[in-house]
Design goal:
CATH class: Mainly Alpha
Number of strands: 0
Number of domains: 1
Shape: globular
Radius of gyration: 20 Å
Largest sheet: none
Helix content: over 70%
Oligomer: single chain
């Protein structure tokens, strides 16, 4: 059996690490940006929601394009745009400028994800584990982004945050040079592709799988709302409790890093026990730990939150592979729906949570967020069995 970590998968995972590091770069800086730009919690929540419009909701469009025009090297422009704009948050002179910077940077993030996810699963015969490696790279990047931003801003100041753009520019050049040889194909010989050469089949082929796809979509939305919400408000919550910005960045990095490790483990467990079981357990097992965070003192509560993140993020790569297996000929489109549009809806829910935080306090808002785990659990329990999953895949091939 071929090695899981092929050179192509290693490159794509490195790129995913870099892109997602830029996507979370601004999160621990929110306390400083809120003070400098005079933002309340509703404005902070709305900022995250608006930023998601470009980084998430444009992904289905890019996924459709990727299913029709196989030019894998074009994904190299994703880290380039993300690096230039996401690193410039410290230059924003106003709330509107900050929103604009994040939205343009989000387009780079969005551009990269759909086709890179398909290329990652095609890079190895062990699709679930390959996707876990790819997703773990991105999640680790997202988890280290806050630590990088705190370190850089502590070193050069908020107004010089742009210095972190250069690694992304180098990575973009390497990615384009490496993938330009795949011009017009984008898949390895014999790989489990979506469609070849002549474009993708009509989207009406997805009609037989709408119910399971909708359940997967809602499960991802629920998990994403929890992830984005805690990522947004945890640093502010800790800062208001008297902890320094660096402590909030470290706590956020621990929360996201353990989530990344959970995602890797989830892919391995899915190969042994099945994806549906992993998704169900990820929600069921995480609920008590998130609830413990809400009632325990700060330090033990953070320990529980980190464990909860480890468990709930175990379903992250599994959801995407389950979706791709429902309709293999629409892999890029499915990936964009579950990685982009679903994450985007989850991020949009942060805006009303911010309003709730202003009205009733951050703890009340985080309690409401935890309730989304119950929604995700209900959707996971209703997912089709492996036998039904195989039948759906046959229907979309017909």
């Amino acid at each position: 059996m071929r090695s899981v970590l092929t050179p192509r998968l290693a490159l794509l995972t490195t790129a995913h690490f870099t892109v997602d590091a830029y996507s979370s770069f601004f999160s621990p800086l929110l306390p400083l940006l809120a003070i400098r730009l005079h933002l309340n919690l509703a404005m902070v929540g709305t900022l995250v929601a608006l930023a998601s419009l470009s980084s998430a909701f444009s992904q289905p469009l890019f996924g459709l394009v990727a299913d029709r025009v196989r030019r894998p090297w074009l994904i190299g422009f994703g880290p380039l745009v993300a690096a230039v704009f996401m690193s410039a948050v410290g230059l924003a002179p106003s709330y509107a400028a900050l929103v604009a910077i994040l939205m343009v940077g989000g387009l780079g993030i969005s551009w990269f994800h759909p086709q890179s996810a398909v290329l990652a699963t095609e890079a190895s015969e062990r699709r679930s584990l390959a996707m876990s490696v790819f997703i773990t790279g991105g999640t680790l990047g997202g988890s280290l982004g806050p630590l990088i931003s705190v370190a850089v801003v502590g070193w050069v100041g908020l107004e010089h945050s742009w210095v972190v753009m250069f690694p992304g520019l180098v990575l973009a050049a390497v990615l384009i040079a490496a993938l330009v040889r795949l011009h017009g194909t984008g898949r390895e010989p014999g790989g489990a592709g979506t469609s070849s050469g002549g474009g993708s089949p009509p989207l009406r082929a997805l009609k037989p799988v709408l119910r399971p796809l909708a359940l997967l979509y809602l499960a991802v939305v629920a998990r994403s709302a929890v992830s984005y919400g805690f990522m947004t408000f945890l640093p502010i919550h800790l800062h208001r409790l008297g902890y320094p910005v660096a402590f909030g960045g470290t706590a956020l990095t621990a929360y996201l890093s353990m989530g990344a490790l959970g995602g890797f483990l989830g892919g391995w467990l899915a190969e042994k026990f099945g994806g549906r079981r992993v998704v169900v357990f990820s929600f069921l097992g995480a609920i008590p730990f998130f609830l413990a965070f809400l009632v325990l003192p700060t330090v033990p509560g953070l320990v529980c939150l980190v464990i909860g993140s480890f468990i709930v993020q175990g379903s992250l790569p599994v959801n995407i592979v389950l979706g791709q297996e429902l309709a293999p000929r629409h892999s890029s489109t499915i990936s964009s729906l579950l990685m982009g549009a679903a994450w985007g809806v989850g991020a949009l829910l942060v805006a009303p949570i911010g309003v709730l935080a202003d009205a009733s306090g951050i703890v009340a808002a985080l309690t409401a967020l935890t309730g989304f785990l119950l929604v995700g659990l209900a959707c996971a329990l209703a997912l089709p069995s492996p036998r039904e999953q195989a039948r759906f895949a046959e229907m979309t091939h017909a």
